[in-house]
């Protein structure tokens, strides 16, 4: 297989043109570079609401080490953050504050809903709690579990990275006119928690 220094594999060029070239410094697109850099400089906002937040903190600590993706410093100011991890149940009183934090974050920004409480109200089917944070902010990834362990949260983060790099996140946002709405698997060894989204529409209709 012909492989040139700095250019890479050229065996597919005859059939596919420049698309057949390996990515390299000559053919790399600025768009790809921007998408790549977004995933390597994603800074979460410091924002924990309930028990799920302890798992989120554990994810940032040395044993799991979010520093691998440059994410270990949760930003104290939303103006320095582009990832909101909604970790825990959202009370009606907290909802406007959560939205304000989201509004103050940088664009482009991403939201992970961590745990069944944040995603659908979970076991708290009552008037005091928001029955799904997607009523307040657009959610890109739902991480199931009560609580989702650090492995599940990291899986959600990696899925988000992958979809940003591939551009699928933007397509899904356009199609759904909101957040991308990806649901990941539970990866922490706990019994999988069933996450029922869209319950409000079913019961109200
Ligand atoms: S999903 Fe479970 S761990 Fe997370 S906030 Fe709700 S009750 Fe707490």
List keywords for this structure.
four-stranded parallel sheet; 205 residues; 6 strands; binds iron/sulfur cluster; 34% helix; alpha/beta; two-stranded antiparallel sheet; Rossmann fold; disordered C terminus
How would you characterize this protein structure?
This protein has 205 residues and is of the alpha/beta class. It has one domain: Rossmann fold (3-Layer(aba) Sandwich), CATH 3.40.50.12280. The chain contains eight helices and six strands; from the N terminus they run ββαααβαβαβααβα. The protein has helices at 13-16, 30-39, 52-60, 95-104, 116-120, 150-166, 168-176, 199-204; strands at residues 3-4, 8-9, 83-87, 110-114, 141-143, 182-183. Strands 3-4-5-6 form a four-stranded parallel β-sheet. Helix 3 (52-60) packs across helix 6 (150-166). The longest helix is centred in the last third of the chain and has 17 residues, at 150-166. It is elongated. It binds iron/sulfur cluster. Residues 50-52, 88-89, 115-117, 122, 146-147 line the site of iron/sulfur cluster. Iron/sulfur cluster (SF4) binds at residues 50-52, 88-89, 115-117, 122, 146-147.
Number of domain units: 1
Could you describe the largest sheet, including whether it forms a barrel?
4 strands, parallel
**Coarse shape:** elongated
Radius of gyration: 19 Å
């Amino acid at each position: 297989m012909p492989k040139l220094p700095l250019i890479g594999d050229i065996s597919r060029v005859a059939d596919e043109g420049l698309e057949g070239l390996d990515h390299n410094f000559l053919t790399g697109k600025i768009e790809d570079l921007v998408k790549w850099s977004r995933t390597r400089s994603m800074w979460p906002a410091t924002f924990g609401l309930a028990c799920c937040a302890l798992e989120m903190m554990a994810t940032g600590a040395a044993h799991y080490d979010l520093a691998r993706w440059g994410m270990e410093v949760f930003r104290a100011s939303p103006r320095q953050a582009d990832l909101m991890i909604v970790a825990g149940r959202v009370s009606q009183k907290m909802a406007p504050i959560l939205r304000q934090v989201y509004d103050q974050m940088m664009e482009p920004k991403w939201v992970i809903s961590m745990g069944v409480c944040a995603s659908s109200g979970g076991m708290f089917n009552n008037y005091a709690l928001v029955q799904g944070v997607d009523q307040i902010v657009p959610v890109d990834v739902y991480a199931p579990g009560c609580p989702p362990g650090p492995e599940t949260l990291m899986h959600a983060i990696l899925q988000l990275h992958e979809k940003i790099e591939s551009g699928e996140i933007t397509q899904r946002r356009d199609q759904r006119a909101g957040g991308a709405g990806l649901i990941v698997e539970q990866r922490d060894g706990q019994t999988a928690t069933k996450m029922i989204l869209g319950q409000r529409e079913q019961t109200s209709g």
